[in-house]
Specification:
The chain is of the alpha+beta class. About 30% of the residues lie in helices and about 20% in strands. It has two domains: about 150 residues, Creatinase/prolidase N-terminal domain (Creatine Amidinohydrolase, Chain A, domain 1), CATH 3.40.350; about 240 residues, Creatine Amidinohydrolase.
């Protein structure tokens, strides 16, 4: 297990050891490459590039597909980077400085085919392979623009799937990766504490996103990828995107906070009610929590993803026609430099292609349950590390029971109103017993 420290490095205590993390990540990728039939890995995925080169130029570059890296068998990685970033690596990244060069791909086709960018990428790769006697060996590619793929093939590079090898490399985390993931969760613990205290009628979902983002960036987050803020009638079905909806008394509100610390992500849901909650909301929360606890209780090395998914309810049990329609509502996924990595736990795929849990995996399990009122729902998620004899949950903000958020206590002439209220005043229709 990793540990949670302060966010600064100090000379009087070993904390997250970045040099060790760089070495161990690259060593794992090399080990898997050398035991495969591949001659090299060609990487365009920013998370894979970071894993083997320990470089990044910011999340803004994630969708540009401009930079690329080559990891040849029995050699150190080579990196072609965006503009002056290569010069920066030469000056400040001694572990890659001799192998950092300027170069870029087609930027998702923004460069016209006539510019020759795709052919230039292919030529660069072929020269490096040929110089190492690897030109006739298959090259694993993780993700690639069609124009670049065609240029590689025209140059005589035999391209095959390399993403599975990189997923295998990233699936088991080192001690320092686990520390980074635990630290990222610690930062979300703090964000949820601020959010829990701030929620009140009149606050908008987008304001919740802003509050959470500020807490995380103030603590040192590298990137707040998303704050999935869902409230009120928007809770069922789950829309997976925040809006400007205004919170009202008695609303359910659930949130997924996705951010990164040193590139390592969180995926971390919590559900609250604003001011008070109903019996239907509390029942939905208990069911959601029960599914999650049953799944977590099964986790240990040697178990399979299929065994865990046995406790997930079938799609039809909570209002969906099939598992594809309900995908990701009862779900587990690896978390690391990417927010969805191996292993995947889902009734959609895990029974047909089960994976075995191993010590050092870090993944999240998220569950969902719609309330009987037809519009409320609960969503909870825990992130955990598979240990030698079980697992350890690293998401610590309280979630055992449904929490009533906000500082307000409402008083009537007879005293404080209860936090469990079957109806709000605007819903006081004529009751059967009236």
């Amino acid at each position: 297990m990793g540990n949670t420290y302060g966010l600064n490095l100090v000379d009087w205590e070993e904390r997250l050891n970045v040099d060790r993390m760089r070495r161990e990540r690259l060593a794992r990728a090399k080990m898997l490459l050398n035991s495969s039939e591949l001659g090299a890995l060609l990487l365009f995925d920013m998370s894979n590039i970071r894993y083997v080169t320990s470089t990044t130029i910011g999340i803004w570059a994630t969708d540009k597909m401009a930079r690329f890296a080559l990891l040849p068998r029995d050699a150190d990685p080579l990196l072609w980077d965006f503009g002056s970033a290569a010069r920066h690596h030469e000056l400040y990244c001694p572990w890659i400085s001799e192998n950092a060069r300027a170069g870029m791909s087609t930027m998702r086709g923004a460069f016209s085919p006539e510019s020759g960018r795709a052919r230039d990428v292919a030529d660069k790769i072929y020269r490096e392979l040929d110089a190492r006697g690897l030109a006739d060996q298959p090259v694993g590619v993780d993700m690639v623009e069609p124009e670049v793929l065609f240029a590689l093939q025209a140059a005589g590079v035999k391209t095959v799937d390399g993403q599975q090898l990189m997923q295998q490399a990233r699936m088991l985390k080192t001690q320092d990766e686990i520390t980074a993931l635990d630290t990222a969760c610690m930062m979300v613990d703090a964000a949820y504490d601020e959010l829990y205290r701030a929620l009140k009628p009149g606050m908008r979902e987008n304001e919740c996103v802003g509050l959470v983002s500020k807490v995380l960036y103030d603590l040192g987050s590298e990137h707040v990828e998303g704050v999935n803020a869902i409230s009120g009638e928007r809770c069922s079905p789950h829309p997976h995107i925040f809006s400007d909806r205004v919170l009202r008394p008695g609303d359910p509100a659930y949130f997924d906070i996705i951010h990164s610390y040193l590139g390592y992500r969180t995926c971390y849901y919590r559900t609250f009610v604003v001011g008070s909650g109903s019996r239907a909301q509390a029942d939905a929360y208990r069911r959601c929590r029960s599914i999650l606890d049953e799944a977590i209780a099964l986790i240990r090395p040697g178990r399979t993803t299929a065994e865990i998914c046995e406790v997930f309810p079938k799609a039809q049990e909570f209002g969906f026609p099939n598992e594809e329609a309900a995908f990701a509502l009862q779900f587990g996924h690896g978390v690391g430099l990417g927010v969805w990595e191996k292993p995947i736990l889902s009734r959609l795929v895990s029974f047909d292609a089960p994976e075995t849990l191993q010590e050092g995996m870090v993944f999240a399990i998220e569950t969902y349950w719609p309330a009987s009122d037809g519009w409320s729902a609960a969503r909870i998620e825990e992130q955990l590390v598979v240990t030698a004899d079980g697992c350890e949950v690293i998401t610590r903000f309280p979630a055992e029971e449904l929490l009533v958020a906000g500082p307000t206590n409402f008083f009537s002439v007879n005293g404080p109103l209860p936090k469990m209220r079957e109806t709000q005043s605007n819903l006081n229709a004529i009751r059967p017993d009236a």
